[in-house]
Structure formats: C-alpha cells, structure tokens
C-alpha cells in the first residue's frame, strides 16, 4: 500500500486498464504538445524561409538532438521564433537565435527551480546516488541510445536524400523528420504508461499482472501506430502544404514518399512497446540491442541499399523496412524463448 500512498495508484491490486488510462492520457497530452511544438517550429521556418530553410535546419538537427532534450530545447523557443522569422525578417538566423535563447532561458529556469537547498540535499545524498548510478545508466541507456538513433536516422537520411535529389530532397525528408516526433511521442507515451505498472508488479512477483499490462500496451501501441499511419497516408498533401508549397520541387518529392514513410509508425510503435517492456523488467541490454537494430544496424545499410534498387522511392522505405525487420527479430526471439 506504500505505493498507493505516494502516487494514489494501486499498482499491486488496481485494475490494470484503469491504472493505464490514469497514466496514459496525461502523459499522452504532455507529449503530444511537445510534438506539436516541434511541428509548429518547422512550419514557422518553412513558411518564413521556404524549403531551403527547413533543409538547413534538418542538416544541423542531428547534432542539436544529441546535446539537448527535445522538450526543453523547443518548448520556449517556438513563439519567439515566430517573431524573429516573420516580423523581424531574420529567417534561419532568427530561428537559430530563438533556439539558442530558449536553451539559455531553460537553463536559468532549472537553476532557479533547483534552489540552494536542493543542491545541499543532492550533495548529502551523493553517496547513495553514486551507488545506484550504474544501474540507472544501465536501465536508461536505451532511452539515450534512442536519441542517438534519431540523430543517425536524420544524418544518414540527409546524406542519401541530398545524393539523389539535392537540396529539395533534404527539404522533403525534413518534413518526415518533423512529423517523426508525433509518432515517437505517442508511442513513448504508451511505453511510459505501462512501465510503472510492469516494473512494480515484476518486483513483487505478480507475473500475471506484468503480462496483462504488457499485452495492453501492445494493443494500444498498435492502435496508436495505425492511427498515425492512416493519418499521414491519407492527409500527406495537407501535411506537406503546412510546411512548404505542394507544387514546389521539394513538395512533389515529399508527396510521393511520405505515404511510404508513414508505414513505419505501426512497427515503430510496437518496437517501442517491447523496448519499454524490457526496460521495465530490467533487461536493459536487450532493450539497447533492439534500439540499435532499428536505429542503426538495420537502418543505415537500408538507406543505401534500397535507393540503389529503387532510386525514386527506396530511401523513403528505409525507415519502415528497418522497423519491420526489428519487429521480426522481436517475434523470432519471443518464439524462441517460449
């Protein structure tokens, strides 16, 4: 009952569906706002500067993602960017200034929040913290690798799209990258909502509740992934026109490729559900391996192989194919371990 006293949620005896809903919807709402901020950020640059603007942002974004969390780095900067890009006419330079400013402001806010008393408490608890640090890093390492994988996805994709289509190709691909946080945040919300239920019941040995929570997370992940796939596939033209003119060279490239790219959402959501599950039960290495498979080991070769076979659309299929192969590895592994 101690867990219920702290959080108001009875992980041990409460109905799994109700527990999941109580965690999922607030988590989903917060993450979707973060994703929308990212999308609006791209719309500002696309409308204010054009295809070259979002292509330029997409080239530098991989380095940016490694150093800064998405929520902090974009949460404050979006409305500032609108002022600097449009009324001030500063274009990409204005976007860069707003981004850098948002990081600085966010850092100051963190310093204000973690006041001196918190610093003293941190120092006092440092010994216990260091004892658990290696385990924290081990469990959370796959989440960090996920960010690196997203950077690899963008960096490799930029190179391949530039090679086959030039600047217009990178601009087209950047639209997919701006939409990727939508499926990432939705899938991550599912995984994070199931994690406390799974990990708590794993700790007390309630295997049936662990299995029930995991099964629910897979079903919700499949539903969310399907919704995103259908949405992007059906409204690809509308989504593209939000960023750049549909009749532009980049717009035409994106209109042919975005429906193909949208397929990745289904398998991505399922893969994230499994990765979150393995994190929850302490199998951090397996979670990291799956993250590396989908984000680098499968993805990078596919980005080069598929366009050589299908030059007009193969690069758009690299990410869906990588997610599919990773999911097939998961299915094969699960069957082998039964």
Could you characterize what this model shows?
With 338 residues, this protein is mainly alpha-helical. The protein has one domain (12-337). It contains 16 helices and no strands. The protein starts with a helix and ends with a helix.
Compute the average pLDDT. 83
Oligomeric state of the chains in view: single chain
| Helix-and-strand structural type | mainly alpha
Main sheet: strands, sense, barrel: none
Q: Beta-strand percentage?
A: under 5%
Number of helices, where a helix is a run of at least 4 consecutive DSSP H or I residues: 16
Number of domains: 1
Number of strands: 0
- Please write the string of helix (H) and strand (E) elements: HHHHHHHHHHHHHHHH
Q: Give the overall shape.
A: globular
Would you kindly provide a brief summary of this structure?
The chain has 338 residues and is mainly α. 87% of the residues lie in helices and 0% in strands.
């Amino acid at each position: 009952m101690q867990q219920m006293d702290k959080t108001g949620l009875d992980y041990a005896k409460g109905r799994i569906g109700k527990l999941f809903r109580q965690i999922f919807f607030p988590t989903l709402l917060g993450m979707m706002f973060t994703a929308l901020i990212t999308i609006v950020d791209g719309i500002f640059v696309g409308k204010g500067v054009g295809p070259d603007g979002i292509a330029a942002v997409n080239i530098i974004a991989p380095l940016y993602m490694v150093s800064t969390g998405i929520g902090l780095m974009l949460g404050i900067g979006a409305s500032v960017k609108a002022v600097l890009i449009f009324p001030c006419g500063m274009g990409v330079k204005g976007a860069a200034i707003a981004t850098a400013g948002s990081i600085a402001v966010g850092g100051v806010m963190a310093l204000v929040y973690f006041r001196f008393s918190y610093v003293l408490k941190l120092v006092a608890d440092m010994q216990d913290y260091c004892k658990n640090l290696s385990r924290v890093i081990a469990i959370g390492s796959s989440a960090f690798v996920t960010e690196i994988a997203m950077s690899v996805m963008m960096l490799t994709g930029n190179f391949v799209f530039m090679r086959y289509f030039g600047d217009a190709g990178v601009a087209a691909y950047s639209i997919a990258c701006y939409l990727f946080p939508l499926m990432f945040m939705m899938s991550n919300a599912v995984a994070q909502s199931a994690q406390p239920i799974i990990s708590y019941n794993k700790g007390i040995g309630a295997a049936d509740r662990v299995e029930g929570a995991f099964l629910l997370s897979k079903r919700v992940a499949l539903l969310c992934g399907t919704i995103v796939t259908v949405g992007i596939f059906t409204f690809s033209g509308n989504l593209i026109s939000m960023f750049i003119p549909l009749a532009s060279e980049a717009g035409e490239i994106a209109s042919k490729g975005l429906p193909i790219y949208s397929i990745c959402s289904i398998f991505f959501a399922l893969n994230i559900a499994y990765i979150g599950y393995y994190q929850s039960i302490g199998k951090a290495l397996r979670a990291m391996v799956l993250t590396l498979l989908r984000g680098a080991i499968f993805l990078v070769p596919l980005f080069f192989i598929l366009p050589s076979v299908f030059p007009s659309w193969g690069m758009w299929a690299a990410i869906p194919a990588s997610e599919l192969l990773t999911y097939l590895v998961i299915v094969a592994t699960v069957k082998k371990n039964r």
